[in-house]
Amino acid sequence: MSSWLDYTINGLIVGNVYALVAVGLALIFGVSRLINFAQGSIYLVGAYIGWVAVVQLHTPLPLTIIVVAAAAAVVGLIIERFGLRPLQNSVRIAPLLATIGISFVLDQLVMLTFSPNPRALPSQLPDVRFQLGGGTIGPLDLLIAGVGITSALLLFVFLRYSKLGWAVRAASQDRDAAMQMGVDVNRVNQAVFGIAAALGGVSGMLVGMYYNQIDTAMSLQATLKGVVAEVVGGAGNVPGAVIGSLLLGLVESYGVAVFGTSYRNLFAFLLLVVVLVLRPNGLFASARQAPPEPLTGTFIAPSRPVRIPRWALAVAAAGFAILPFFPVSFYVLQTLINAWLLGMLALSLTLVAGTMGQVSLGHAALLAIGAYTSALLSLTLSVPVGLAVIGGGLVSAALGTLLISPSFRLRGHYVSIATLAIGEIVSLVILNWESVTRGPIGISGIPPLSLFGYDLISPTSIYWFSFAVMVVLALLQGRLLGSHLGRSFRAIRDDDIAARAYGLSLNRYKSLAFIFGGFAAGVSGGIAAHLYSYINHETFNTQQSILALTVVILGGLGNVVGAIVGSVALVGLPEVFRIAAEYRILIYGIVLLLLVRFRPQGLLGTI
Amino acid sequence: MTTSAPEPLLALSNVNTFYGQAQVHFDLSITVARGHIVCLLGGNASGKSTTMKIILGLVKPRSGEVTFDGASLIGLSTPQIVRRGIASVPEARRLFADMSVRENILMGAFVRNDRDAVAQDLDRMLTLFPKLGQRLSQRAGSLSGGEQQMVAMARALMSRPRMIVMDEPTMGLSPLYVDRVLELIRAINQEGVSVFMVEQNASLALEIAHEAYVLQTGKIVLSGSARALKDDPRVRDAYLGGSEAA
After folding, report:
1. Cα(B245)–Cα(A289) distance, rounded to whole angstroms?
2. B108 vs chain A: nearest CA distance in angstroms?
């Protein structure tokens, strides 16, 4: 049993690692008001470059650090120049979505180059521990602390005494005024991305050495931890990010000490949600308010939606309905079933993100709640499957709305962060609440779909069932959008202050949107659970949340028909072109990037 | 005063500007002669501030020409325009609130590389704005509005500009500071810096300006020497809102 001092040392060391990521995020947020979701991917790239340097090139440690920092900086510069600079004049959500796309592309490229299997990353340092009070400390701990403190000092000197550092500070306080002093904001952005990437890359390498293991799952975790630390310290606040990181490291370490390792991330995200709710500007926000997020309306690319005549929709629906009568393979039906299930999730997300303007990055959590509810109802309480699926939808609507409600008072990027964290919390609670969810073992032997006592086992019957459910949900949502309620949703999205001035209660309407959206997503998850017959806490992950977001943007935010078209396109096209599974995520990332760059209003236009 | 400056320092000719569908400027033409203070007057939403943004390259006109010292500014970025010798005192001052007063003033010299001369200029600013001497290490955001205006003007002067553009330099200041600011503008001008200022307060601006233009919903409705416009009842009418007053 380790001592408290050991946990403290461990917390501070891990906090140092987070700080390297979080400081980069804070610099970037300061200058361009952007949460860089690709920061974790650079950390991943840094870890693998470190592996190549150490294991294949046998570089000495100081050289390894320099190589990793330089290579990661180059990646950062490329991201800034080709991924983000072209988006300077587009809608505010565009750069955020672009960094998500970039992170998918980078992660997949690393995975395709190095395979997803974990690798060992030796630290080249002697494996000794020194006694320190009641605890121990090793050379690697000292290295990490040294790198952290050196980086902080270098950064301080850069910001305080160099001309470019002054430009960075000026641009982060008032971009336009800085330009009027002759500051070239593009150069500032470059500098900031280069520094952030160098720090992030070194951080990834150090973590790899600390655990003597690297794998591609590191990326998302690093982004999440960095974002938590940065927001806790106050977005854009560089010293705050350092303190937030150390605090996060300590909270996690003590949490692990008391409850066990599987609770580590749960504490991180709970800390984030608590800070977002109580002090959205971070723990150390000065009296001066952080620059306000843009009103949500500017988040949606304005466009004129493509009008599709009703008869054309009816013909298309009829065509899909009679499809099983034609000699199509089970494979085609199976693909379309997946598209219909994704379609339900997309309907839910397009309502919440498009119509309501709350860009959720944790939507897969609603699937998980629906799936677990339906599975457990049918398995443990022997509820008929048809009712259990509806139960899944209802519980997902109620619980999802309740869980998301702390984020109702947030705006813009903060909503995305909060929903991402809440999504992770749901998955972690499922993992840890073993008495109900069976924890990491998952739930197996879930009964197949059935309706009024008849099992739906043939692909044809499952196809019809899922298609019918999706069409009903789509029709309901279409009615909703045309109603007074739908108009209120859009009013809040376009200008929540004006909407409030007209007496619309934001909490009430946001709840209604999430209730409706939660039901659709919960039903989709419930059906999926009975189809898969086995689910665990990783069945519905962040990748699915992002896939759903890509679908929704592809179809056009808020667009009901677009959500379905987008689902069929993103599920169907990779099948048509027989693209191997490992390339699909890469393609989704590229699709997202191209959409954001060239057609932010999607195929059918935003509504 | 000599009137033998044939080529103006700054000239906007036939500028048309749009925000989306809405037209902000209609064939706007303004000239600023070397060494003069020129004032652009107008009420709310007349397109005054947009004129400043056009000069600084923050907004691009759809058509028309902007020249400074004979060379076109169209297509140049804001930093490039600043390097040509135009400094600005933006609306509401826009200081870098978390940087010190000293850092703010030195940010004005960002485009310069002559360190020693910059240090001398900083001393010169402290004689011009003696109050700032005690405030140098204070956060700029903690200063009063009038003091912030002093910092903003010192910051603009630090680039050794040939022209300063100012957006409502007296807005939100106490009467005492308004007089002080006007005095300073005159003093700056007497050192050879041309000034183009946008103002709502016509009577104050006309006291120090050489020429003035009156802008109403994107069109120049009056222009001429400040002395002539001071007594022109149409200036007041233009403010009170157009046709019914005319």
Report:
1. 43
2. 6
Q: Is the pLDDT of residue A32 over 90?
A: no
Which one of A278, A297, A326 terminates a domain?
A278
Nearest residue in chain A measured CA to CA from B109? A181
Pair (A207, A356) in one structural domain: no
Map tokens 């749960």 to a residue. A266
- Across the interface, of A170, A173, A180, the residue whose CB is closest to B90 is A180
Decide if domain B1-85+161-246 falls under CATH 3.40.50.300.
yes
Other CB atoms within 10 A of residue A323 CB: 16
Query: The tokens of A227 are what?
Result: 């974002």
Contacts of A286 in chain B (CB under 8 A): 98
- Whether A267 and A413 share a structural domain: no
Residues A273 and A380 in one domain: no
Looking at the structure, tell me whether residues A411 and A338 fall in a common domain: yes
Candidates B91, B110, B157: best to mutate against A (most CBs of A within 10 A) is B110
Q: How much is the mean pLDDT over chain A?
A: 88
Closest CA to A566 of A393, A558, A412: A558
The answer to whether residue A150 scores a pLDDT higher than 80 is: yes
Q: For the segment A188-205, what is each residue's pLDDT rounded down to a tens digit?
A: 999 999 999 999 999 999
Closest chain A C-alpha to B7 CA, distance in angstroms? 25
- How many Cα atoms sit within 13 Å of B9 on the Cβ side? 21
Using alpha carbons, list the distances in angstroms from residue A73 to A77, A82, A512, B1: 6, 14, 45, 58
The CATH number given to whatever domain includes residue A227 is 1.10.3470
Tell me, yes or no, whether A176 lies in a domain: yes
Domain count of the fold of chain A: 2
**Rounded Cα distance, A17 and A222, in Å:** 10
Question: pLDDT-based confidence at A458, cuts 50/70/90?
Answer: confident
SS3 A606: coil
Question: At a CB cut-off of 8 Å and minimum separation 6, what does B197 contact?
Answer: B37, B38, B39, B40, B165, B166, B167, B169, B185, B205, B209
Mean pLDDT of B182-205: 90
The boundaries of the domain holding residue A393 are: 308-598
d(CA B120, CA A151): 34
- The question of ipTM being above 0.95 is answered as no
One domain for residues A330 and A268: no
Give domain limits for chain B.
Answer: 1-85+161-246, 97-160
DSSP secondary structure string for all residues of A494-521: H-HHHHHHTT--HHHHHHHHHHHHHHHH
- Same domain membership, residue A319 and residue A270: no
